[in-house]
Amino acid sequence: GNSVTQMEGPVTLSEEAFLTINCTYTATGYPSLFWYVQYPGEGLQLLLKATKADDKGSNKGFEATYRKETTSFHLEKGSVQVSDSAVYFCALSDRDGNKLVFGAGTILRVKS
Amino acid sequence: GAVVSQHPSRVICKSGTSVKIECRSLDFQATTMFWYRQFPKQSLMLMATSNEGSKATYEQGVEKDKFLINHASLTLSTLTVTSAHPEDSSFYICSAIRTETQYFGPGTRLLVL
Q1: Three-state SS at B68
Q2: Measured between beta carbons, which residues in chain B are less than 8 angstroms from residue A104?
Q3: Among residues of chain B, what percentage have pLDDT more than 70?
Q4: Which one of A63, A69, A108, B66 is most buried, by most CB atoms within 10 A?
């Protein structure tokens, strides 16, 4: 079945540091890939997505590229801020049912 | 952007009572909505797929008689936790699909005493 594996957290960074959160997936066919962010006390928000190989999703300074050859969708940001502290979820969906399969989530803590 | 709301945001109830949670798509119509459950510091677990005008599809291990889902209109799905017990305490999140992307509600925290 489909699955998503994320790097374990928590990830603790200083403000303005470079961020990478690894995400790899296992899927049949050609899934769409997503990053969702959950700020403390809030629901999930779509951060970015990519629907086919080599697509790059980007939003709020975050980027992720759909790499079919390595089945990866790593999240990156060049300079993190304290306000980026949240839990980040990598997810995939199959095209038929749009069901999302989530990774375990990675806690990011950014210190000033 | 696509907005999904949930009501209530928090609810505390006594063991044995039933609780209804509403999920609404505010600015779009959604034929399909999803219900998730999230335990503390864990990922989301899909409970069921709610289809407008038809019966919900439940994931393996989810009791359909325990978690009643009704999707009576294109903008509203409800989850009723029947005869709630303390182990049902959790964060319940719904989502709705718009243009192949799921948009999530803010979640409902249920505490059963």
Answers
A1: strand
A2: 42-43
A3: 99
A4: A108
